[in-house]
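#data-curation
PF: Archiving a pair of folding outputs for the training set. Convention for this channel: one message per protein, sequence first, structure tokens after, nothing in between. First:
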Amino acid sequence: MSQFECEETCMTDERVTVVGGGLAGCECACQLADRGVRVLLREMRPEASSPAHRTSGLAELVCSNSLKSTRIDSAAGLLKEELRRMGSVLLDCAERAAVPAGGALAVDRDLFSRHVEEAIASRPGIEVVRGEVTSIPDGPCVIAAGRRFPRPSSISLVETPFRFSTRRRPSWTHPPSTGPLSSPSRVTERGTRAIT
């Protein structure tokens, strides 16, 4: 079994909802679709927006058009090389939309967004639905949304399974009392994360 194939517990027949059409959400949707997983990509714009957004395009860069250094001896450059070797779709889009920026990768924002839109549209396994998401969707989902997504304090109780894994590493790598999900979440006996 390759590193990208799911274990028997992986729900490959179900569609995965990815909430957020930014950089992380678009990369996630492409990677899942390239591995045969059907994806529902949810993006709030143009129905809802933020003061920073000016278009309804996917993966819109709102702060800076620079993706930082390309030098392999810098953290940002090393990360780009790792992403390149792992087949990052958005890094390829960024490199095709590059503008002169010395030793950095800077992009034409509009061209970059168009390249990402084309990458999403070219994958028949991805369905894009526009409109604000106000609660965590049923079924397998990835939350790759920004500040407008409801915070855990506004959700009374949510249980989400974390059954996606590979055979090479456990699906839960931190003891329940430590690690990133220990507060405000708790781990239940069934292996779900409960946000209170």
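PF: Second:
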Amino acid sequence: MTRAAPQRTQDFDAKLAAARTHDVAGRGKKAEALYRQILKKDARHPGALYALGLMARKGGNAERAVQLLSKAAAAAPDDAAIQCDLGNALKALGRADEALVHHRRMVELCPASPEALSNLGTTCAKAGHVDEALDHLRRAVALDPANAEIQYNLGNVLLSAGNFEDAAEAFTRTTAISPAHVRAHANMGVAHKELGRLGDAEKSFRVALGLVPGGPSAIDGGRLAGRMDGL
């Protein structure tokens, strides 16, 4: 028995590595077959469950993704990546309160991770906990001020909270880091418009329009053009 267990682990590791190679190469069916072979021998194998959960989410089967990722989290409760992706899957289904449980656990496991704090912050905002969301996002920004997406997430929560001045500043920082960030330019325009700075709003919207493939004729471009009404 003592010899069988290490051999079994090696077999699982080999199959998992081969499945991941297929997955990365776009050979999803071959990858799935190998993951399922692992689960036939160990129904609680967290690596196989996690991988199948990610495949289900990528394939648009959100409910199945949550089922698989929940099993993976139960089998490996201290795996931050699983907690993160389970929370994201739940959040995508509009189940923000459930997502919070897993994103809080993720931050417990990785308290100094700016990405984890940012993720928790956006989930808190979805669940209606705006003050807590801002606390987590500001901590994330302090840890990684050069991360454009974290700055953008902070700006979005500030914007939804009606703090237009601070939101505009966050979007300004976002675009300084990532000049082609279309959504940041667009949302900066919204913040300026709410503050009555119509010239700045128009400038931001025009920059955003210039970055949208297809310009005003594209779907996103048309939406941006609509935001310029009244300027």
